[in-house]
Each structure stands twice: as C-alpha cells, then as structure tokens.
Design a protein that fits this description.
The complex is a heterodimer of chains A (about 300) and B (about 350).
Chain A lengths: L4 H10 L14 H11 L1 H23 L31 H37 L1 H16 L2 H12 L3 H28 L2 H8 L4 H37 L11 H10 L6 H28 L7
Helix pairs in contact in A: 1-2, 2-11, 3-4, 3-11, 4-5, 4-7, 4-9, 4-10, 4-11, 5-7, 6-7, 7-9, 8-9, 9-10, 9-11, 10-11
Chain B lengths: L3 E12 L2 E13 L4 E5 L6 H8 L8 E10 L2 E2 L5 H7 L4 E4 L13 H12 L4 H14 L5 H4 L9 H13 L5 E5 L7 H18 L2 E6 L2 H7 L2 E6 L2 E7 H6 L4 H8 L48 E4 L5 E4 L9 H18 L1
Parallel strand pairs in B: 3-8, 3-9, 6-7, 7-8
Antiparallel strand pairs in B: 1-2, 1-4, 4-5, 9-10, 10-12, 11-12
Helix pairs in contact in B: 3-4, 3-6, 4-6, 6-7
The chains are: A mainly alpha (about 300), B alpha/beta (about 350).
C-alpha cells in the first residue's frame, strides 16, 4: 500500500478534474486512509520512531562489537561511557546490545502473538457472525466464558503446565488476546452480511467460504488493523509482566521485560540498567498506541470529509 | 416448454408476531427471451417471489413452504446447495435495487467482474479481464478499459447500475431477474438503464423478470405482466390485455394512480387504505377492504377463484364487487371526502 500511494496520491487530488488521463487506478479506501494518516503528525512521528526502534533492535546487534552473553566480571557494572553507551550490567555485559536483543524478542512476541490472536479471532468471529443463529450464540457464549477467566492466571497455568518456552508464550498470549478481535470481527460481519453486495455475491453463485474470505473479511479489516496495533503493545506488556514474574523469557535470553526486572533490583545503585530498557519499552508502547489511534481516525469512513 | 415454470409457490416468514405469508400460492411461467413484469405495491411479495426462486430468502425466519419452480425440468426449490450455486449467476442472474450497496466497496470493479466470469467458466485471469472490459463497453461505460480498475465509489449511481447489469450478463444467463433496477436512480437515468436492459436482452435473447411498482415501465418494456397484491397474483396476462381491459379492481386502481394519465391540476389519485396485515388470514379477495366497488356482503376466506380469459389473460374473480363500474365516480367521491376532511380540520 505504502509503495503505490505516492504515485497515486497526485491523481487522487486531481480526481475532481477528471480530464487528466493520469487516473490509471482509482484511489482505494486504503489509499484514502493512508492519505489521512499522513496528515496526523503524531501518528507519522510515532511511525517513524517505531520504525527506527525496529531497525535499531533488529540490525543493531550485527554492528555491535560486543556479544550480549559475553560476561566480563572484572568490568562489572559500569555507567554509560563511550565504549558502552548504555553502560554494562553487573556481569559486565553491554546493556546496549542486551537492550537491542531484548527488543528483538519483545517485538517478536508482540508481532507473533498478535498474529496468532488475529488469525484465531478473525476466523472464529467471521464464522460465528456469518452463520448466525444458534451456532453464533453458542460460539459467543464460549468467548464470554473465556472473557470471564482471569487471563493472566490462565497464561500462568499454561506456562506452569507446559514448561517455559518462547513459542508457548506466543501461543498462550495469542490464545487469550483473540477474544476482542473475535467480537469485533463478528459484529462487523453481522453488519456486513445484511448488505446487498453479500446477497449479490450469493446470487452470483459464490460459496460460503469464498464470501467470508473475499467479501466479508476485507470489509472488516479496518477495525481489525486498529485492534492489531493496540494489541501489540498489550501483548508486549503481558510478556514483560510474565518475564517480570519469572514465567516468561528465560535467561540468558532477554526481553525488555527481563531487562527491566533485572534493572529494578539494583536501580538505586545502577540506574542505567533500568532506564534504557524501560525507555525503549515505553517509547515503543507510546508509538504503537499513537499509530493505533491515528489508524482508527484514518480508517473511520465517517471522518472522511475530504 | 417454458424456461421457468413456477407453481403454487408459498413463502412465509416465521416472526415473533406470527406467520407472515409473504408469497401465497403464486404461479407463473416465463419463456425464453420473454419479459415478464411483476408489479404491485411495497410489501406485495414481488421481491420475495423472485428471491425464493434462487433461495435467497434468509432462513430463518423465512421458509419456502411449498410449490415448485421448474427450470429446464429441474426444481430450483428442491435442488441441493451445490447444484443451485452452479445455476445462480450462471443461468439465472440478478440485478438489485440499489447499485450503491450491491457492489463490494472494497474491491475493484474488475476484481468483481473477473470473479463472476472465472467462477462459472475456465477462462484464465487475462481472458476474464478482457471479457469484463467488453461487458462494460456493451453497457455503455465510456473508456471501459481504464474504468474497469476503478472502485465502485468512483462511479455514479447510473454507471454503477450499468456495472451491475454487465456483471449479471457477463456469464450469458438464460434468465435475468431485475429487482426494481431503476428505483434508486435519477429519473433521467432510469430510461437509459431500461434501454440498456432491453437492448442487451435483444442481443442475447435472455428472458427478463422485471420487478417494479411503476406501471409505466411495465407498459414500455414488458411482454406480459403479473399484478401482485398481498402475496398473491390478482391479474396476469399480456401487457396490452391487462392494461386495456383490466378486470381486477386493484389493477384498475393502480392504473388510476399513474400521474400522467390524470388531468393536469387535479389532485393525484391514491388508493385509500393500506395493504392488509399478512400475518392474518386473508379474505378471498385480499383487496376487498380497499375496493372502490364493493357490493353485496363480505367475501369469505376461501382461496381466490381464478378466471381464465383468452390470450392467457387471467384474474382473481371476486363476486363481491362490481368491477365494471366506472372508477371516475369513485374518484369524485374520494375528492369530496378529502374536501370535507379539510373543512372539518
């Protein structure tokens, strides 16, 4: 979407004076949304900052002279210096590299667990909404029942029962975060399926699965994207929380949650151990929330005055 | 043999307030290349009749309670879902009332047209797109090769309805069901759309069922007409016969409501009262409570008695009205009553 929009946006502006033969392809709702999003300064800045953090965390370790696991007990905990911009921890490990690698895992958890939750939520919600009737009622009561479970305890139980692997964190968090997505997709699908174009699709001879996947899900993707950008920080927070409790990512691997947990133990003596991971974590969460807000406004067709 | 033969179709909606008999014992047939008009007030069962044929009625609450719809010897109402899907869109297509909502706003027009083609043929994507462009050209969309990649919201209402027609006809169906195709459109565009339907019908030899509440449209476009009221067909036959020799008082009342047939400066005629509640048992003549020529007592609740005249002209005969009485006297009476009301108020 982003690659095609710069080329398309001039033609969008020229659309009222349609004489220009430039209008190769019409502006889709997505392109309109992208145009509106770019007017939202906070969202654009957040998007840039978030992209920077991603690149920094993903590519950073390749350029660092330090290994995140290499201990240097003679150095110990040193405050930030030119050699170690973020300082070192009590085992002499470079905090910058550890923050980068922690970021990798935190972002990975955020994206993958959100992905898991979206897939389950979209399929479940769309099926329930499309089938309707008793099936829908039964499926949604199941969701209500899961909602009523204290979900952190649910995750903790899973971790205790099946051991502590990184993959299990994805699945466990994904399994509790899909409920909201399912509800939103379901309500969207219920609204959509009354529309004539769905009837037209049936009259055209399309099967149920095709109608759901081609005609219904794309139409509810707007709110789903917003939910996704707001789920990513929630999931990262949950992972940090689990790691903080010692149930999440296990040493020597690190996530931002693990680093914050380690940092807070000595925060009065070695504050840099807490400050840097916490800073990165908070900025990322802020960015994602602002992007989510911006997307919600941009994708809201009622806001489309221009 | 008729292309489609509908016998004793009954469709009801099982609602909380009771069973609404939306279509009550409707029979008709249509030949290849023929145009059949279905006319009636809102809620008379025109659309439900046609939706039932393709089983597009939401179930529940709707249910087809009986009847047969023989298409090429197969009963559409008893066919399994898979066989029906092969007929929907391929052999029988539909055009919907509101072109603003009948196209998926998130998909390019080309995507939607290509989907229709590829679903029912084994053309590859490129050939299908070529066909889509040709289909758009045939319904008079300028610069079709460029416009085909636009999104529905970039077309005007009339253009969108053209797209719908192109989409319905792209699979070369035998029967096109047009559910009030011009109702949501500008008056100036309505004639164009009807012209296109008519023109494509001549070129392709497709049969058309045209649902409308505009008698003028029926007179201009259709070969035969069914007049529906309260879920029943009250009169049917060749357009000329039904319009020049209407037998049922409802047909005559409908005719009187055509504005252009009335004298200028006169207040427009309306049929007094409202259509009956379909969840209650109907009188033998459902129109009786609003009948302008009632006489000798109230009809019972027996099924209506169909009288067949020559030329396929038939009507639901009612012994409780004087259907040959001049309607003008009734109109004068109505005007008088209205004038009294105004003075009273």
């Amino acid at each position: 979407m982003s690659s095609s929009s710069p080329a398309a946006s001039p033609s969008v502006d020229a659309a009222p004076t349609i004489a220009g033969a430039e209008l190769e392809q019409g502006s889709s709702l997505w392109q309109d949304a992208w145009r509106r999003l770019r007017k939202n300064k906070l969202a654009v800045v957040s998007l840039g900052l978030f992209a920077f953090i991603c690149v920094f965390c993903i590519l950073g370790p390749f350029f660092s002279p330090y290994d995140s696991r290499a201990q240097d007990l003679f150095v110990g905990a040193e405050p930030p210096s030119w050699a170690h911009p973020f300082g070192t921890d009590t085992l002499g490990r470079d905090v910058m590299v550890r923050t980068m690698e922690g970021g990798r895992i935190s972002l990975l958890v955020g994206v993958l667990a959100t992905g898991v939750s979206l897939i389950i939520g979209i399929v479940y919600g769309a099926t329930a909404g499309y089938l309707g009737g008793k099936t829908d009622a039964a499926m949604m009561r199941f969701v209500d029942a899961l909602y009523a479970l204290p979900f952190t305890i649910f995750v903790i139980l899973l971790m205790v029962a099946f051991g502590r692997s990184l993959w299990l964190i994805f699945v466990a968090i994904g399994c509790v975060e899909w409920l909201t997505t399912a509800r939103i997709v379901r309500s969207g699908v219920i609204n959509m399926k009354k529309q004539e174009f769905v009837e037209a699709a049936v009259a055209l001879g399309l099967g149920h699965s095709r109608i759901i996947s081609r005609h219904l899900i794309p139409n509810v993707l707007g709110p789903v994207i917003v939910i996704a950008t707001l789920t990513v920080p929630a999931v990262m927070l949950l992972e940090a929380f689990l790691s903080f409790l010692g149930l999440g990512v296990q040493p020597p691997n690190a996530s931002w949650g693990v680093l914050i947990k380690e940092g807070q133990q000595d925060m009065e003596i070695f504050p840099w151990l807490l400050i840097f991971p916490a800073l990165f974590f908070s900025v990322t969460l802020f960015c994602l929330n602002f992007i989510g807000d911006g997307l919600r406004d941009a994708l809201d067709p009622k806001a489309a005055k221009d | 043999m008729a292309l489609l033969e509908v016998n004793n179709l009954k469709t009801s909606f099982y609602t909380r307030d009771g069973i609404v008999r939306a279509v009550d014992d409707v029979s008709f047939s249509i030949d290849r290349g023929e145009t059949l008009g279905i006319v009636g007030e809102s809620g008379s069962g025109k659309s439900v009749t046609c939706y039932s044929l393709l089983r597009l009625i939401p179930e529940p609450p709707g249910r087809i309670d009986g009847g047969t719809a023989l298409y090429d010897g197969q009963d559409l109402l008893k066919m399994n879902e898979k066989a029906l899907r092969a007929i929907r869109g391929k052999r029988i297509s539909m055009i919907f009332q509101d072109p603003m909502t009948a196209l998926n706003p998130y998909l390019r027009v080309s995507t939607q047209l290509v989907e229709a083609v590829r679903l029912h043929s084994d053309l590859d994507a490129k050939a299908a797109k070529k066909k889509a462009i040709a289909a758009l050209e045939e319904v008079g969309i300028p610069e079709a090769s460029r416009r085909v990649d636009s999104y529905p919201h970039e077309f005007s209402g009339g253009m969108r309805q053209r797209v719908m027609i192109a989409m319905a006809l792209i699979t070369e169906p035998d029967l096109l069901i047009a559910d009030e195709p011009t109702t949501a459109l500008d008056v100036t565009v309505q004639a164009q759309i009807l012209d296109i339907i008519k023109q494509r019908q001549r070129q392709m030899g497709v049969a058309v069922i045209l649902i409308t509440h505009d008698l003028g449209v029926i007179a201009g476009v259709c070969d035969r007409v069914n007049v529906m009221y309260a879920g029943r067909v009250l009169e049917s036959g060749p357009v000329d016969r039904v319009f020049y020799d209407p037998r049922h008082p409802y047909t005559r009342s409908l005719q009187k409501t055509i504005p252009s047939l009335q004298e200028k400066g006169e207040e427009l005629y309306t049929i007094p009262g409202a259509p009956p509640d379909l969840s209650k048992p109907q009188l033998s003549c459902a129109f009786y409570p609003r009948c302008p020529y009632p006489k000798n007592g109230v009809p019972g609740d027996a099924p209506p008695n169909f009288v067949e005249l020559d030329d396929g002209h038939a009507y639901a005969a009612c012994t409780h009205c004087d259907s040959r009485a001049p309607i003008e006297s009734v109109m004068a009476e109505q005007r008088g009553a209205r004038a009294d009301n105004r003075e009273g108020a």
